[in-house]
Design a protein that fits this description.
Rossmann fold; 2 domains; six-stranded parallel sheet; 8 helices; about 20% helix; binds zinc ion
């Protein structure tokens, strides 16, 4: 199969011919139709996060078509040849640790992640553990669906952690924020979007998706926020966001990697403000979010690239060269 591989962090991705993957007894063999490009892929590419192995096939927002099923799963759980399924970041968990047995499989210390520990979707074919795949029925196109599988559903997990916060700040208005903005507006919340300095296009994009206000991250919003989600990998946003939320409010860091957080006065946290991170996803998050998506209904803003242009897609993500999400269109 044709694939794009990461040989060593900091080096450009390389096109390669790899042997077709062989599904294990509990796996599905999938033809990859589309794979979303996530900032985590960029962190792995740039060596800010450790790759599970090399050469590694990145990509964990996979929309695939079932070509074959392992002996244990063939014919079960609605697994049909030709069915469209989604493969997210959480690729496997142990199922027996104290996290797995208490509804917190996202924190399993032995978890394996797609496109990091297991080869992912920057390829024509992939295999995935059937228990961690989501059925993807409905009218949305492959490219519309792919970004929902990480940007959407981890963003949704982060949104859930804000409880019923009415005034919601979104710091970094990229793939995740443009989806979560729509969910938040659908739920009747007010969205305040924060972009990089001078990103007028990003601010217009946010207002077009229903944000009440859009400005730069160093600006104070016109009203105190009840909660803020930080999607940009910039630690300096943490004290800014804490200063923008009201007493009792929360700041949720939704990315897997962030530059160091500068020190800040305790007064910024005082008043029962909460600061926390969101790690990974549970399958329950995915099921809830994918059921909600058509009810919003979510519209994904997509920039498509062919598989061979994966390195370019990552460069464009690094440069903030597009609004919304980048997707590799493969089959
Ligand atoms: Zn576990
Ligand atoms: Zn991701």
């Amino acid at each position: 199969m044709r694939a794009i591989v990461l040989d060593s962090p900091g080096q450009p991705l390389r096109a390669a011919e790899l042997p077709d993957p062989v599904p294990g007894p509990g796996d599905l063999l999938l033809r990859v139709r589309a794979c979303g490009v996530c900032r985590t892929d960029l962190h792995l590419r740039d060596g800010e996060l450790p790759a599970g192995h090399t050469p590694l096939v990145l990509g964990h927002q996979i929309v695939g078509e079932v070509l074959a099923a392992g002996a244990e799963v063939a014919g079960t759980r609605g697994v049909q040849l030709g069915a469209r399924v989604g493969v997210p970041w959480l690729g496997w968990t142990c199922g027996e640790c104290r996290y797995c047995t208490s509804g917190r499989e996202n924190l399993c210390a032995r978890a394996q992640f797609t496109g990091c520990d297991r080869d992912g979707g920057y390829a024509e074919l992939t295999v995935a553990d059937a228990r961690f795949c989501f059925p993807l029925p409905g009218p949305l196109s492959d490219e519309q669906l792919a970004p929902l599988l990480c940007a959407g559903l981890i963003g949704y997990r982060a949104l859930q952690m804000t409880g019923d916060a009415q005034r919601l700040g979104l710091y970094g208005f990229g793939s995740a924020a443009h989806l979560i903005c729509q969910v938040a507006v659908h739920e009747g919340r007010e969205v305040f979007a924060f972009t990089r300095e001078g990103d007028r296009a990003g601010q217009r994009f946010a207002r077009g998706l229903g944000a009440t206000w859009a400005g730069t991250s160093t600006q104070r919003p016109p009203e105190e926020l009840d909660a803020a989600l930080i999607f940009a990998p910039v630690g300096a946003l943490v004290p800014l966001a804490l200063r923008a939320v009201a007493r009792g409010g929360s700041v949720i860091c939704a990315g897997i990697h962030m530059s160091d957080i500068p020190s800040f006065p305790y007064a910024d946290l005082w008043g029962e403000r909460t600061l926390r991170s969101v790690a990974n996803l549970t399958r329950q998050d995915g099921e809830a979010f994918l059921a909600l998506a058509p009810r919003v209904p979510l519209r994904t803003q997509v920039t498509s690239y062919p598989l061979d242009a994966a390195e370019q897609a990552l460069a464009d993500l690094r440069a903030g060269a597009f609004e919304g999400a980048a997707v590799l269109q493969i089959a």
